[in-house]
Amino acid sequence: MQEKGTISIHTENIFPIIKKFLYSDNEIFLRELVSNAVDATQKIKRLAALGQYNGEVGDVRVEVAFDADKKTITISDNGIGMTADEIKKYINQIAFSGATEFMEKFKDAKDANEIIGRFGLGFYSAFMVADRVDIETLSYQEGAEPARWTCDGSTEFEITEGSLEERGTEITLHINSESEEFLNEHKLQEILDKYCKFLPVPIKFGTKTESEEDGVDEEGKTKYTSVEVDNIINDTNPIWTKAPSELKDEDYLKFYKELYPFSEDPLFWIHLNVDYPFNLTGVLYFPKLKNDFEFQKNKIKLFSRQVFITDEVKDIVPEFLMLLHGVIDSPDIPLNVSRSFLQADSNVKKINSYITKKVADKLAELFKADRKAFEDKWSDIGLFVKYGMISEDKFYDKAKDFVLLTNTAKQNFTLPEYKDKVEGTQTDKDGQLTYIYTNDAKKQDAFIQSANKKGYDVLVMDSPIDNHFISQLEQKLEKTSLKRVDADVADKLIKKDDAPEHVLTEEQSAKIKEIFDNAIKKPAYKVELESLSPDELPVTVTMDEFMRRMKDMAAMGGGMGFYGNMPDNYKVVVNGNHKLITRILENDNAETQAQLAKQAFDLALLSQGLLTGAELTEFVNRSVSLI
């Protein structure tokens, strides 16, 4: 049997485009050819199950081998095989997919979607790395004869009598000089681990050495001997293909370590399993995030029928869920013809919404089932929850019932609980509720203590995204504002009707302002005289809440660059009711007045970590001289 012909291509130049440009990475050839081989084994199993193949199926498998000397890579299977006519139909006619025809023929059969191939183009990825490709194949059909197909990468092919004696297909790639990197065991193993680690049919790649028990020695100790066994590179039944009821915590943790061997154990996980209105399985893990905001994205792996596709899942998974780890597998996720990228589709939006809901439901369930355990995990998951609330309104609507606010006493409150706690003491004269917070409890300790003296509670808001979260709370919570504890003196944080009376006359007030202006001599610091409690500090340095918040957002790249470029401006609040101010006024020596004012000002800066370098040294020397 001998025949020559021309591959059917309607556009003259399409073949080199397919070979060189269809796939973004030439290592994809191995994924495509192994997937096709798995496809062939799935077909023979399906035909046998349907009673359309009565022969012995046997243990189906795919084997990958290479010969560095001959410069060949071979992918073989014991699947459905092809006749010469089928070669002409499925190989010579580009984009006529045998898998598509098979699925249409058996569309009513259960699990028809196990067939991987869709476009009929994957085979031609072989020519990205090969000068010549040979196919040896023998169909499962009774009386079929083996056939051999060969092509040198042009539009010319040749079909002759084949040599296979058993059902299946063997594809041999004669690697070109530019792709000899693939004639390496470690390189091939790396690609197989990346794309084929969870395919549903065993994939053999050479052999490996294992220790096997071999009786006991004279001392009664077990003896071991080294044996060569098949190197099966894949787990054919990964945990996401199983029902949650079949699995234990150890199974989920073991799988996580398999995916991320150097990561800490996850906090918890969600098992996804839905078959309507789309098919989706997977496991998403919550890693420990802490507050460093170094989100390691691209940790979710996307599979289609257990074939790895990509770890770029931003269209399927909401932005804030990119912080999770794990796998998602769906045959309903639309891919381009090279199975490398997602395409826009209504299913993508549905899957996106479904995953958001599942994550929110899981967190709500954990909160309700064991609040103490949930609070223990809050330092790890709080950043994630807040990020989600900022990013997705639908997630906010669910998360507002379990998001926690933590105060400086390390107590946790839900949003309704915290409102109840502070409403009586932190509502101003206009009925506006004010939440006070710190983003650095150590640095702002003096302000926190002042606020506590007035009976105010102070929240800790020190995560990198809390500026955005604060703004969102102000938008969502009725008649509620948030102020950083150092945005003003404690008496002015919340406007009340019981402000202390002035003890200084207008003339004395003007004199004190003049003394401090002359002592400070810094345009960025504006002196204001206030009548505060005598127990408050004599001088406090603050920055306007709005301006400081805008500058913080600008520092994070939050689109507030205009504010980030503006110079820092501070308010120097002089407490006219403090005894030190009276002492300054009563002193007749102008130099001493200036020295005391400067010392009080520097003390205020020191308490906030704003006094550094030469100014700090000068303050220390001046303090010593005053002793």
TrEMBL record:
Taxonomic superkingdom: Bacteria
Positions annotated to bind ATP: E32, N36, D77, M82, S97, G98, T169, R339
GO molecular function per UniProt: ATP binding; ATP hydrolysis activity; ATP-dependent protein folding chaperone; unfolded protein binding
Keywords: ATP-binding, Chaperone, Cytoplasm, Nucleotide-binding, Stress response
Matches recorded under InterPro entries: HATPase_C_sf, HATPase_dom, HSP90_C, Hsp90_fam, Hsp90_N, Ribosomal_Su5_D2-typ_SF
Ranges for domain Histidine kinase/HSP90-like ATPase: 25-179
Entry's family note: Belongs to the heat shock protein 90 family.
UniProt-recorded name of the protein: Chaperone protein HtpG
Taxonomic source organism: Mucilaginibacter pallidiroseus
Gene field: htpG
